[in-house]
Amino acid sequence: MRILGIDPGYAIVGYGIIESDAGKLVPLDYGAIETPAKLPTAERLVMIEKRVTELICEVKPDEIAIEELFFNTNITTGIKVAQARGVILLCCAKLCPKLFEYTPLQIKSTVTGNGTAAKTQVQYMVKSLLRLRDTPKPDDAADALAAAICHALSAQGVKRGLK
Predict the structure, then answer these.
(1) For 113, left (φ over 0), alpha (ψ -120 to 50), or beta?
(2) Does the pLDDT value for residue 48 go beyond 80?
(3) With 90 as the cut, is the pLDDT of residue 61 above it?
(4) Are 14 and 138 within 8 A, CB to CB?
(5) How open is the CA angle 4-10-11, to the nearest 5 degrees?
(6) Minimum mean pLDDT among 57-61, 90-94, 115-119, 134-138: which range?
(7) For the chain, N or C: smaller number of CB within 10 Å?
(8) By percentage, how much of the chain surpasses pLDDT 90?
(9) Cα separation of 27 and 38, whole Å?
(10) Which three-class secondary structure state does DSSP give residue 28?
(11) % the chain with pLDDT above 70
């Protein structure tokens, strides 16, 4: 099964693609979609929509795992991230009928065994579970891979498919 993991963001959207076959996890690709800070919000959202659509069409995932929004103390940033997440969800829902959402706690618990794990612990486990030479960069890509791993390892225990 090909799984696309997405860590939604406004400035940076992390993505990670893995294959999961009988418990064996194989990394295929990872990276980030970045939007320039100087552009207006609407233009940045269009960039995200275009690149996420291209990514899904290129990868042709069987399922998509996306991290749920975690609100921080900066409400302005939170609103922009929520807007970007909405665009990402719409793209995913239109192009892949199997979309699953996981909280940061669920992802950390599944990947590390500890729901309060530090970012460095998650990165270490992503690197280890996927047998990568280096820690995926940027951090958003590692988080996206963690979402994909969470989905693969949870045996879809938290199903929220759209169709």
Answers:
(1) left
(2) yes
(3) yes
(4) yes
(5) 100
(6) 115-119
(7) C
(8) 80
(9) 33
(10) strand
(11) 90
12-21: strand order across its sheet? 24-34, 12-21, 2-7, 63-67, 99-102
Count the alpha carbons within 13 Å of 117 in the hemisphere toward its beta carbon: 22
Exposed, middle or buried, 147 (CB in 10 Å: 0-12/13-18/19+)?
Answer: buried
Tell me what pLDDT residue 22 has: 79
Query: Which residue's structure tokens are 């969800």?
Result: 89
pLDDT tier, 154 (very low <50, low <70, confident <90, very high otherwise): confident
d(CA 161, CA 163): 6
d(CA 64, CA 159): 11
Q: Which residues contact 40 (CB under 8 A, 6 or more apart)?
A: none
> Could you give the residue numbers annotated as active site?
7, 67, 140
Predicted pLDDT at 78: 80
Ranges of beta strands (E only) in the chain are 2-7, 12-21, 24-34, 63-67, 99-102
